[in-house]
Specification:
This protein has a two-stranded antiparallel sheet. 76% of the residues lie in helices and 1% in strands. The longest helix is centred in the middle third of the chain and has 28 residues. It is globular, with a radius of gyration of 19 Å. By secondary structure, the chain is an all-alpha fold. The chain has one domain: Farnesyl Diphosphate Synthase, CATH 1.10.600.10.
Length: 297
């Protein structure tokens, strides 16, 4: 095995992150307390899949920072980052195969395909001023919410959940993932670099059509639209330019309206847990939702 694979992968994994997705897999399995004992394999596979997408995303987006450190591509280059991302995906599927659970393998394989489709759709919509809120919802569902959904579903399967419990955790994960990405897209404009682990306004510089921008373009004046469109996709946009765009977003309440949608998804995630018996683990999963939304405040 090339030394590049473990060293580059370890750099990203050791750089931090919430480890939220694998935690959800393990918690979802423990919630039901039975099953095959394969939750750890699935949790590791989910985290490897997530880190693979981060390596690939940073190449696609030309990102300089990840989790408050130089992105792996800035140290090892784009080619190594893409190939090590592929290596992590391969490792993830090896861990899934070890469980011999073909149904769960199917869930995570479908998630991997959907995530790639979501990234391609987002790339196609980059800088596209005709992008709608519905287009955006499709992007974040595929590229982010799908992995949350699958992480929770395979955890429930590993824990021996019945069909009702599996559906509940699947819905919970999907809604949590939607809320999580909506909050992330607000933080790109409101968060500090040392908090969000990347440069403020990176989504703007990369031309990403996130909901705050889509809503602003739909209701802003001609002058405000010109400011936004001039900055959108400008990799050299200054901090002052980003601040001008943020002022427009705040004036049109598009960050607050995006957070309203995040809260609606969060409420749906908590409601999905309602069919399950009251327990400390169920409360923990509800707290995860509240934490995910509270990051924007």
């Amino acid at each position: 095995m090339s030394k590049w694979c473990p060293s580059l992968a370890r750099y990203l994994i050791d750089s931090g992150g919430k480890r939220l997705r694998p935690m959800l897999t393990v918690a979802s399995a423990a919630l039901f307390g039975g099953g095959s004992g394969s939750a750890i394999n699935f949790a590791a596979a989910v985290e490897f899949m997530h880190n693979a997408t981060l390596l690939h995303d940073d190449v696609v987006d030309d990102s300089d920072m990840r989790r408050g450190r130089p992105a792996a591509r800035m140290i090892w280059g784009n080619q190594a980052s893409v190939l090590v991302g592929d290596f992590l995906l391969g490792q993830a599927f090896m861990m899934m195969v070890e469980t011999r659970d073909i149904d769960a393998l199917g869930v995570l394989a479908a998630a991997a395909a959907a995530m790639a489709e979501g990234e391609v759709l987002q790339l196609a919509k980059t800088g596209d001023l005709s992008t709608t809120a519905e287009d955006y919802a499709a992007v974040i569902r595929a590229k982010t919410a799908t992995l949350f959904e699958s992480a929770c579903e395979v955890g429930a399967m590993a824990g021996g959940a019945d069909s009702s419990g599996r559906r509940a955790l699947k819905t919970y994960g999907l809604e949590l993932g939607n809320a999580f990405q909506l909050v992330d897209d607000v933080l790109d404009y409101r968060g500090a670099a040392d908090t969000i682990g990347k440069n403020r306004g990176d989504d703007l510089r990369e031309g990403k059509m996130t909901l705050p921008v889509i809503l602003a373009l739909a209701g802003a004046s001609k002058a405000d639209k010109e400011i936004i469109t001039a900055a959108l996709g400008d990799a050299e946009a200054s901090a002052a330019t980003v601040e001008r765009v943020v002022e427009i977003l705040e004036r049109h309440d598009t960050l607050a309206r995006t957070l309203d949608q995040a809260r609606a998804h969060a409420n749906a995630a908590v409601a999905a847990l309602g069919v399950l018996p009251v327990s400390a683990l169920r409360d923990l999963l509800a707290d995860v939702v509240r934490f995910s939304v509270s990051r924007a405040y």
